[in-house]
């Protein structure tokens, strides 16, 4: 009996039970348990966020943070968002998770301001979210609730949001920008990037994907980065390079003309308290 897992299978329709046997691989069982436990993560206080600094390397200062969601699962330990976000998107809890994260980030940002720390926060939004709630309305609600100036909030969306080419999503992104919240295109250069769409997208910033930096020693990668920087500049878009891990990464990216960076070289994502300690240390 122990090797039989029962599971409410969404695919089969509401309230139908599917029985999985030991023939199922551990990967599938884990996925199933994650899906089942996800709704509880919020009520049982298992979610938390970490913040990773975004650096202006010209001025050598922190200009904002990205909020990264974490889940301390009672059995599996801390699970990466790369694993549970795609599951949350399918199971439908993504809206609740994102609402929770937005609240956490905005309330933290406000708290920092009270401590005299001006630190804009960025929150990742997934494609599926735009299909399930009116995101701009919710963002507006949260800004009002926490009395937060919209210039302190940024949202990051991946290319797939943007190239899904749905009018409704474009409109929501446009509305979010109208509120005064900045919009970044995350992981730019990985999926379906189409340069020709860049001039019509409701975005402020391109986040150059880590894969460019991973092969930064290759001349062709450098040519691509230079090209992207040139186009972004002409279109009035800002560019931030993700995944800077070494001094050499920073040097090359800087030489190519990009001065805003994020990566382990500066700091891994950390809890709010550690981040503030780090900022104070740097100021001394
Ligand atoms: P992302 O938005 O592109 O976030 C950057 C990821 O790269 C983070 O992984 C970060 O910890 C990692 N990273 C940062 N600097 C470096 C570096 O120098 N080297 C390497 N190897 N990695 C670096 P993380 O936290 O595991 O998040 C993975 C992805 O999960 C995120 O990618 C984002 O797409 C998604 N995610 C995280 N939090 C949320 C959330 O609240 N909502 C949604 N929808 N997605 C989220
Ligand atoms: Mg991101
Ligand atoms: Mg990214
Ligand atoms: Mg990513």
Automatic annotation (TrEMBL):
Keyword Membrane: yes
Keyword entries, A-Z: Membrane, Transmembrane, Transmembrane helix
Domain of life: Bacteria
Domain EAL: 31-283
Lineage: Bacteria, Bacillati, Bacillota, Bacilli, Bacillales
Protein name in UniProt: Diguanylate cyclase/phosphodiesterase with MHYT sensor
GO cellular component entries: membrane
């Amino acid at each position: 009996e122990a090797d039989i897992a029962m599971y409410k299978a969404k695919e089969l329709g509401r309230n139908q039970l599917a029985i999985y046997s030991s023939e199922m691989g551990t990967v599938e069982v884990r996925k199933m348990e994650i899906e089942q436990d996800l709704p509880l993560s919020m009520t049982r206080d298992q979610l938390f966020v970490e913040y990773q600094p975004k650096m202006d390397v010209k001025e050598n200062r922190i200009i904002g943070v990205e909020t990264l969601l974490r889940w301390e699962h009672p059995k599996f330990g801390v699970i990466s968002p790369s694993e549970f976000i795609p599951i949350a998107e399918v199971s439908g809890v993504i809206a609740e998770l994102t609402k929770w994260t937005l609240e956490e980030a905005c309330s933290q940002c406000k708290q920092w301001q009270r401590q005299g720390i001006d630190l804009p926060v960025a929150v990742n939004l997934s494609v599926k979210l735009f299909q399930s709630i009116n995101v701009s309305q919710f963002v507006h609600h949260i800004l009002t609730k926490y009395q937060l100036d919209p210039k302190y909030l940024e949202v990051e969306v991946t290319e797939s949001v943007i190239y899904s080419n749905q009018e409704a999503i474009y409109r929501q992104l446009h509305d979010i920008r109208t509120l005064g919240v900045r919009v970044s295109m995350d992981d730019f250069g990985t999926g379906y990037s189409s340069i020709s769409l860049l001039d019509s997208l409701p975005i402020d910033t391109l986040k150059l994907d880590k894969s460019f930096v991973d092969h930064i020693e290759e001349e062709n990668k450098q040519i691509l980065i230079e090209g992207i920087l040139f186009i972004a500049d002409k279109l009035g878009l800002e560019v931030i390079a993700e995944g800077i891990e070494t001094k050499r990464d920073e040097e090359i990216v800087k030489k190519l003309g990009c001065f805003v960076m994020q990566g382990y070289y500066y700091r891994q994502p950390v809890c709010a308290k550690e981040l503030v300690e780090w900022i104070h240390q740097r100021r001394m």
